[in-house]
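hey can u check if this looks right to u? its 308 residues, i copy pasted from the old doc so theres a chance i mangled smth
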Amino acid sequence: MTGTTAAHDHVFLGQNHARNERRTWLVVALTAAMMVAEITAGTIFGSMALLADGWHMSTHALALLVAAVAYRIARNQAHNPRFTFGTGKFGDLAAFASAIVLALVAVQIGWESLQRLWEPVPIRFDEALIVAVIGLAVNLASAWLLREDHKHGHGHDHPVSAAPGAARDNNLRAAYLHVLADAMVSITAIVALVAGRSLGWVWLDPMIGIAGALVILQWSWGLMRDCGGVMLDYVPEGEELPGEVREALERDGDEIVDLHIWQLGPGYHGAIVSLVSSDPKPVAEYRARLAGLDELAHVTIEVRHRAA
C-alpha cells in the first residue's frame, strides 16, 4: 500500500520570500543608481577611477537583478502545475549563476591587480578615496538590507531541523555576497589608498586587490558548491534529516529499504520512503510518526509485506 499527502499545493518558497524580494529590488535600485552616477561623473570629469568603479559595479547590478527576477518568477509561477515540485529551487538556480559572475569579477580584479603590480599606474588618491568611501556606504546599506533573519522555530528537539522555509536562502546569500564583495573591495581600497598617499606604498593597492580576489573566489566556490548540491538533490554531509526519518519510522519490525530525501525550497524537503514489515500498519500511522519533522513538506510512503 502507498500513500501521499492529501490534496495540497506545491508552494515551497522560503518564509521570508516576499521580504527578500522587496529588499533585493531596493538594493538593485541603489546599486544601479550608484553605477549610473559614477559612470556619468567619470565621463563629465574625465575620471578613470570613477568610470572603472562604475563599470565594475555594473556586473554586481546585473547579478543582483538576476536574483530579484528569480524571486519574482518563483512567486508568479508558484502555482503552475508544470513545476512538479514547485518553484522553490529558482533561487538556487539564480544563485549558481550569480556565483559564476562573482568568480568572473574575482578573476578580473586579480588580473588587473597583477597588471598594476608589474606596471604601476598613477593614482589620483583624493578622488579615488571619495569614490571608495561613497561606494562603501552604499554597500554597507545594501548589506544591511540583505541581512538574513536567523530566528528559527523548532518543532522538535533536533538542532538541525528548522521551521519550514526558515533555512538558508541561497538566492539572498548570493546577493549578499555580491554587495559584501564590493564592500570588501572598498575597504581594502581605502586602506591601500591611505597608505599609498601617506607612505608612498603604491604596490599595496594591487597586492590587496590580489588577496581580495582570492577571498571572493573562495566565496564563489562555496556558493556554487551549495547551490549545485541543491539542484542535484545532493544530501550534504552532516544533514541529520535522513537519520531522523529512519529513527522515526524504523520500529516494531518496520524497516526502510529505500529512502530519497531532497530539498524543495528554503527549509522545505520532500521524501519518498519504502518500508517492509511483517506487520504493516496503515500509512497514516507512519505519517503520524513523521509529524514532528517540520521541514518534511511532501512525503510519499510505500509499505510492503516482508517476504517470507
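The beta strands are 2-4, 255-265, 268-277, 296-305.
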